Amino acid sequence: EDGALSRPLALAAEAAASSLLRLSDDQLQEGLAAVTLPPGLPRRLHLTIQVPADAPPGLYEGAVQLLSKGELVVRPLRIRVLPMTLPEPERPAGIYLELAPALSWFGGDQEAALACDLERLEALGVAPLSPPLAQDPAALGRVGQGLAGHGMSWPLLAYTPLKRWWAQGAAVAIEAVAASERRWRELGLPPLYWSLADEPRPETLTALLAEAALLHRAIPGVRLAAHLNHPSQAPLLAQVDLALINAGFGADREQVERLQGMGKRVWLYNLGTPRAAAGFYLWRSGAEGMIQWHGRMPTARPFDPTDGREQDFLLLGAQSCQRREIGLDLLRLQQGIEDGRWLRWLAQAAQHESEAAALLAQLWQRTPSRWVEAAARPEQQWDRDRLAIIRLAARLHSAPVR
To answer: For 208, how many CA atoms within 13 A lie in the half-sphere containing its CB?
Structure first.
């Protein structure tokens, strides 16, 4: 039961800023105890099955049983374990993450809550690319140590600290960023990119460029980032090291190559089809990472769609440990990450297997290099493309997959 996720129906806003409500099953609850099967209302379960690292290869068979209103439903389950281990994805895909808001309002063990979030994300293979970072260098360093303990090796986006420090004055911001950078390096942690601006308005660009220039002069080697969702924000590229781009700015491969030609690192962000964005399209675009909003951002009372100015964004649920819920989009993101792991295996196999090289070339050709086309592909096509890789892996290991 611990690995089962059910999809209860609840009211949700139809769009981010909409007041129109609809029935939705996009928020999943862990466990089967509360699941019922009313007539005429199909239900879907998502099962997470951990295969031990030392499990012998072969076919494993079992069943899923669900008792509802005196009726027993049994569905067969077949798992084939291949004699191989997938590599980690070449390009990270993950989420923005903040602590449960209630911990800020009423107190609570924030470090324990963060550890719980990180354990869940690690189990899913999802990177917290923008973790909750404290507003003082010492506490920020402790968060970094916690991330390192969970195997974090990717560059990280410091989304909120610079903006909040700058609101207290340039001197405060420079001192805090410099101290944080020193502490981060002492701990041997992955690079930090400080978010300078998030989808800025055109009239703010002059001030932001001046802020960035001052930071670069005062802190040699500081890395700055900006979220760009409109071509009018392009002047910021002169002062940032990491450009986060979405469909509004242009997220096609051609755009990614243009920015990389300017010496910028490029991440995709907030693309509306998480599986495509985190998997095959991330690979095809050439971007170095992908990040999705938002791990946990209720606008008011979580899961009450009538309370708040807009839709809740809760990929991880309101509380990660006490109330085990995740958003369906987090599972879609996870599937994209798994696609990326299979693609990396295929690229490695292509170096010495002609069949793998041929399949890699085929997938490259049929994966769109324009985001609008990739987003329009049905999810079943990504399933088929991944299955083609799995079948090849099984053939190479003499273990047929049906």
So the answer is: 26
CA 110 to chain centre: 21
pLDDT score of 310 more than 70: no
Question: What secondary structure does DSSP assign to 121-142, as a single string?
Answer: HHHHT-EEEE----SSHHHHHH
241 within 8 A of 264, measured Cβ to Cβ: yes
Residue found by looking up tokens 């990660």 in the block = 320
Q: Are strands 27-30 and 325-327 parallel, antiparallel or unpaired?
A: antiparallel
User: What amino acid is encoded at 261 in this protein?
Assistant: G
| Domain locations in the chain as residue ranges | 93-344
Q: Kindly state the DSSP code that residue 9 receives in the 8-state scheme.
A: -
* CB-CB neighbours of 338 under 10 Å: 18
Nearest Cα neighbor of 189 from 223, 139, 138, 155 is 155
The strand pairing partners of 65, in sequence order, are 74
Is the peptide bond between 150 and the residue preceding it cis, with omega within 30 degrees of 0? no
More confidently predicted of 156 and 115: 156
**Strand pairing of 4-6 and 45-47?**
antiparallel
Mean pLDDT rounded to a whole number for the chain? 84
At 1, the pLDDT band (50, 70, 90 cuts) reads: very low
Partners of 61 in beta bridges: 78
Instruction: Kindly write down the DSSP assignment for every residue of 197-215, as one continuous string.
Output: EES--GGGHHHHHHHHHHH
Whether pLDDT at 123 is above 90 = no
CATH 3.20.20.70 fits domain 93-344: no
**Does residue 58 surpass a pLDDT of 80?**
yes
For the residues of 101-125, what is the DSSP string, one character each? HHHHHH---HHHHHHHHHHHHHHHT
Sheet holding 27-30, edge to edge: 45-47, 4-6, 27-30, 325-327
Give the contacts of 302 (CB within 8 A, at least 6 positions apart).
Answer: 312, 314, 318
The two most distant CA atoms of the chain are separated, in Å, by: 71
* pLDDT average, residue stretch 176-201: 91
**184-193, 256-265, 288-297, 300-309: which range is least confident on average?**
300-309
CB atoms < 10 A from the CB of 402, how many?
7
